[in-house]
Design a protein that fits this description.
This protein has three helices and five strands; from the N terminus they run αββαβββα. By secondary structure, the protein is an alpha+beta fold.
Length: 163
């Protein structure tokens, strides 16, 4: 689980990235499982993009492995109206950027790689911290059992109104 401080650090990095590359229309960090970690994607379904990114990542990893090109580093998709770029962000996350078609792709890669590396460091450190923390143990009181008397049937039960 990501602490509020770590989440704000990732969100800050996403916002700084959007400032450095004004043609970005969105940025999100997600786990390789397709779950959103943090996003700055106005007007875009971040959960849907993260899930589709995970699917595309699976294909990209397999393609890179099959062709002998090593581990996944980045994926670039060019559409009619813009770009979608995904970068590795540490061991268990990716950074996905949405950009207008007029973006300088070299600048997109430069800034995307830097931000992916920074976000990866933040998320990897948070994961290590969570792993190093002692497990939370719940101290529940011991359950005691009370002895009950024999059950009575409705005909044997007497109330204060019965004589």
């Amino acid at each position: 689980m990501l602490s509020e401080e770590d989440l704000q650090a990732v969100l800050g990095e996403l916002r700084r990235l959007r400032t450095r590359v004004p043609q970005l229309t969105g940025a999100l960090a997600a786990g390789v499982d397709g779950l959103v970690v943090a996003h700055d994607t106005p007007g875009v379904d971040a959960e849907g993009v993260a899930a589709l990114t995970a699917a595309a990542l699976g294909v990209a990893v397999r393609l890179a492995d099959t062709t002998g090109n090593g581990g996944f580093r980045e994926l670039l998709v060019r559409g009619e109206y813009g770009y979608l770029a995904t970068y590795a962000a540490g061991r268990t996350a990716v950074l996905t950027l949405l950009a207008q078609d007029r973006v300088n792709v070299g600048r997109l890669h430069l800034e995307g790689r830097r931000a992916g590396s920074q976000i990866g460091k933040l998320l990897d450190a948070a994961e290590e911290t969570a792993r190093a923390a002692p497990p939370v143990t719940r101290t529940t009181p011991a359950r005691t059992r009370t002895t009950r008397g024999p059950r009575t049937t409705a005909s044997e039960a007497h109330t204060t109104t019965d004589s």
